[in-house]
Amino acid sequence: MPEILRVTAAADVKRIVLQSSQAVGTRPGAVSHAPLHAIEDLVRRSGLGWTILRPGGFASNAFAWAEPIRASRTVTAPFGDVGLPVVDPDDIAEVAAAALRDSAHDGRTYELTGPALSTPRERVADLAAALGEPIRFIEQTPDQAREQMLRYMPPPVVEGTLAILGTPTAREQRISPDVPEILGRSPRPFTAWATRNIDAFR
């Protein structure tokens, strides 16, 4: 058992929540997410009450666009018209808190998504509406995106990310019922995230 789980058990903690990734379930053979399989297995064997959260793409990944929006009101991104149900990190946090408080979630694995498919082009439009100024969207080719991403991601992660962004599976585009079932409300849409965080783009 890794040290963090030993310390947790020794402290008499009864329940843990692991934030994993949707791709563990949707792309089980992907090299990019292989380490998460091992971490999930360790958590399941920990002897503690456990809940595993597998969110899809984060709404907050749009922070990567903050600097070019501030500098030139421009966003470059690949696969401009491919939709994914990006999830608000605040929803992930609320689900995690609910799982920590209630043993009914022990032994469960949840997929967390937003309420609707959203494309990069649409998310840029949502940011422009929140900002009150136009933002130009320039679609990258996959090779252009790969070259950019390789500056800060390992190659397997780049390839796994591009595969999800460009050719999502039906399950990756599915709107999960787990956030509504756990929180008793709809997931927050990207527009809500954009409005709440728009100062980062000014």
Helix-strand layout with pairing:
Layout: H1 3-10, E1 15-19, H2 23-26, H3 34-44, E2 49-55, H4 66-72, E3 74-78, H5 89-101, E4 108-112, H6 120-131, E5 136-140, H7 142-149, H8 155-166, H9 178-183, H10 190-196
Parallel strand pairs: 1-2, 2-4, 3-5
Helix pairs in contact: 6-10, 7-8
Would you kindly provide a brief summary of this structure?
This protein has about 200 residues and is an alpha/beta fold. It contains ten helices and five strands; from the N terminus they run αβααβαβαβαβαααα. The chain is about 45% helix and about 15% strand.
Describe this structure in words.
This is NAD(P)-binding domain-containing protein. Pfam families: NAD_binding_10. With 202 residues, the protein is of the alpha/beta class. It has a single domain (3-201), classed as NAD(P)-binding Rossmann-like Domain (Rossmann fold). It has helices at 3-10, 23-26, 34-44, 66-72, 89-101, 120-131, 142-149, 155-166, 178-183, 190-196, and strands at 15-19, 49-55, 74-78, 108-112, 136-140. The strands form two sheets. Strands 1-2-4 form a three-stranded parallel sheet, with helices on both faces.
Q: What value does the average pLDDT take?
A: 95
Query: What radius of gyration results from the CA coordinates?
Result: 18 Å
Helix content: 40-55%
Give the helix/strand class: alpha/beta
Percent strand equals 5-15%
Number of helices: 10
What fold name goes in the CATH topology slot? Rossmann fold
CATH superfamily: NAD(P)-binding Rossmann-like Domain
Q: Tell how many strands the DSSP assignment holds.
A: 5
Q: List the strand order in the largest sheet.
A: 1-2-4
User: In the CATH classification, which architecture applies?
Assistant: 3-Layer(aba) Sandwich
Q: Main beta sheet, described?
A: 3 strands, parallel
Characterize the overall form.
globular
What's the CATH class label? Answer: Alpha Beta
Low-pLDDT windows of residues: none
Helix and strand succession? HEHHEHEHEHEHHHH
The overall number of domains is: 1
Straight-line N-to-C gap? 46 Å
Domain NAD(P)-binding: 4-102
InterPro entries: Ergot_Alk_Oxidoreductase, NAD(P)-bd_dom, NAD(P)-bd_dom_sf
Protein name: NAD(P)-binding domain-containing protein
Organism: Phytohabitans houttuyneae
